[in-house]
Design a protein that fits this description.
pyruvate-formate lyase- activating enzyme, 3 domains, 451 residues, Rossmann fold, alpha/beta
Length: 451
C-alpha cells in the first residue's frame, strides 16, 4: 500500500532514463515541510487516468506539477480528472511552460510563474486561497539547498543525472525562455563539496542545466578545475555553451581534458550575421565559426553544434549556406538541426505577427511560416533535418557517409536534401524506418551518384 504524502511532487519526464532535477530541488527546499513531501516520478508512457490513480493513492493535501512543453497536455488532462476523484486536494503548477497568459490556469488552485522553490514552500505553508498566480522572483542561489544528495544509488546507476552551477543567462536570445532571467551563480564553497559527494558515490556522467555554462568565466574555470584531476576513462560531462563568446582560459581548460570526457552543446543557431543580430545573437558569426573549429579540432571534446531553421529573415538559401559552411569549415561530429519553436514567454512568440511568423498553437509550437519561408519549405527542410539525423548524426553508416560527402562536398545541404527526397518517395515517411531499409536507400543513392 502506498504511504500517504501530504505534499506530492509530480514529475513527468520525457522518458524513464531522465531523473527530475526540478522535483528534487523543490523537495530539498521545502524546509520543515520536506518530511511531509514525496516525489512521484513517471514518464510519458503513462495515461492521465493511470497517473491520477497513482496520485490518489497518496491521499495528498497538495499536488504539485512541474510543467514543460512535452508534458503540458498530460498534466492538464490529469488535473481535470483529479478535480473529480480528489476534490479536496490543492493543485499547484509551475515550470517553464507557464506564463502569465497561460490559457488553462483555471485548472489549478495556484500557478507559480518563475523559479519555484521559495514560492512552492510558501504556498504549502499557507491555507489554500482562491485560485491565484504567484510571480516568483529569481531565487538567491546562496540560500538554496542543492538537491544532489537526493539522487538514489539506482538513479546514479541507471539514469541521466542533472546538475546546475548557475541560473539565468546574460544573453538576450529572442527564442529562449531564459533571456529575461538574470545570471546568478551557486557559491563554489557550497557547489563543489556537493559535486564531490556525488563523485564519491560513483557518478561519472553528469548533464549540466546551465544555459550558457561558459558565460561566467571564473566560475566555469573553477568547475572545470574541480573535475579535471578527477577524470576517469568513463567520465562524460555535458555542458551547454555559447560559442559566440569563448574565453581563452575556458578553451585552454577544455583542451586539457582527455578525449571524450566533455560533451559540449554549442548553440550556433545561424551563420547569417543580420539574422543573428535580429534574434539577439552575436553578429560576428566568423568568430563563432572559428570557436567551433577550435573546439572540434584543438580539444578532445565531443562538440554538438545546434542550428535553427525558420528564424525570421533567413530564407532556405541562407540556411543551406550556413549549414554547408559549418560542415566544411568546422566539421563538428554532431550537428543538430532544429525547427524554430515559439516558446511561451519569449520575444519571438510575443512579436510573431510583426515579424511575419506563425507558430503551431499546440506543443512543441513549431513555426508554420516565416517572412522568408512558407509551410512547404519548412516541411522540406524538416525532412532534410530528419535525414541528416538518421544517416549522419547517429553514425550508423560511416563508410557510406564518407563516400557521400566525398562525392557531394561542399554542397552537403543539397546532398542530404536529395537523399531525404529519395527516402521519402520510397517510404512515404522519415520515421520508423529499419536500419537495413535506410542502408538500402543510401546505397541506391550512392550508386546513382556514380552514374
Amino acid at each position: 500500500m502506498t504511504a500517504p504524502a501530504e505534499i506530492l511532487l509530480v514529475a513527468i519526464n520525457a522518458r524513464y532514463s531522465h531523473a527530475s532535477y526540478a522535483a528534487r530541488t523543490l523537495q530539498a527546499n521545502l524546509g520543515a515541510l520536506a518530511r511531509q513531501a514525496a516525489i512521484l516520478e513517471t514518464d510519458l508512457d503513462i495515461t492521465p487516468v493511470q497517473l491520477a490513480e497513482q496520485i490518489a493513492r497518496h491521499h495528498p493535501r497538495v499536488v504539485s506539477f512541474t510543467v514543460y512543453l512535452w508534458n503540458v497536455r498530460l498534466v492538464e488532462a490529469t488535473a481535470r480528472i483529479l478535480r473529480t476523484v480528489l476534490p479536496q486536494a490543492r493543485l499547484i503548477a509551475g515550470g517553464p511552460e507557464l506564463t502569465p497568459d497561460y490559457a488553462n490556469a483555471a485548472l489549478f488552485d495556484t500557478l507559480i510563474i518563475g523559479e519555484g522553490e521559495t514560492a512552492l514552500r510558501k504556498a504549502c505553508e499557507t491555507p489554500a486561497p482562491a485560485a491565484h498566480q504567484r510571480t516568483a522572483a529569481p531565487e538567491p542561489l546562496d540560500t538554496l539547498t542543492l538537491p544532489f544528495d537526493a539522487y538514489t544509488d539506482t538513479d546514479l546507476a541507471q539514469r541521466t543525472i542533472y546538475a546546475e552551477t548557475s541560473r539565468g543567462c546574460p544573453y538576450p536570445c529572442a527564442y529562449c525562455t531564459s533571456a529575461q532571467t538574470p545570471l546568478r551563480l551557486f557559491p563554489l564553497d557550497t557547489l563543489l563539496p556537493a559535486l564531490d559527494r556525488l563523485w564519491q558515490r560513483g557518478i561519472r556522467q553528469l548533464k549540466f542545466l546551465d544555459r550558457s555554462f561558459n558565460a561566467p568565466v571564473a566560475h566555469a574555470c573553477a568547475v572545470l578545475d574541480f573535475f579535471l584531476p578527477r577524470v576517469t576513462p568513463d567520465t562524460c560531462l555535458h555542458f551547454e555553451i555559447n560559442p559566440d563568446h569563448l574565453h581563452p582560459d575556458i578553451l585552454g581548460r577544455i583542451a586539457a581534458f582527455p578525449k571524450g570526457a566533455l560533451h559540449l552543446e554549442a548553440g550556433v543557431q545561424t551563420l547569417n550575421p543580420s539574422v543573428a543580430a535580429a534574434i539577439g545573437r552575436n553578429a560576428d558569426t566568423a568568430q563563432t565559426l572559428q570557436n567551433i573549429r577550435r573546439l572540434t579540432h584543438d580539444t578532445g571534446a565531443v562538440v554538438h553544434a545546434d542550428l535553427i531553421f525558420g528564424l525570421p529573415g533567413e530564407d532556405e538559401a541562407s540556411f543551406a549556406n550556413g549549414f554547408d559552411t559549418l560542415i566544411t569549415a568546422a566539421a563538428p561530429p554532431e550537428v543538430q538541426v532544429n525547427q524554430l519553436k515559439g516558446l511561451p514567454g519569449t520575444r519571438l512568440r510575443r512579436d510573431a505577427p510583426t515579424l511575419g511568423l506563425a507558430f503551431n498553437p499546440e506543443p512543441p509550437y513549431e513555426v508554420l511560416h516565416t517572412d522568408a519561408m512558407d509551410f512547404a519549405t519548412l516541411c522540406r527542410i524538416q525532412r532534410f533535418a530528419r535525414c541528416w539525423e538518421l544517416i549522419r548524426n547517429r553514425n550508423r553508416f560511416p563508410e557510406d557517409v564518407a563516400r557521400l560527402h566525398k562525392a557531394t562536398a561542399p554542397a552537403y545541404y543539397r546532398a542530404y536534401h536529395a537523399l531525404a527526397d529519395r527516402i521519402f518517395s520510397g517510404e512515404g515517411k522519415l520515421f520508423a524506418i529499419s536500419q537495413p531499409r535506410l542502408a538500402r536507400h543510401l546505397a541506391d543513392h550512392l550508386d546513382g551518384l556514380g552514374k
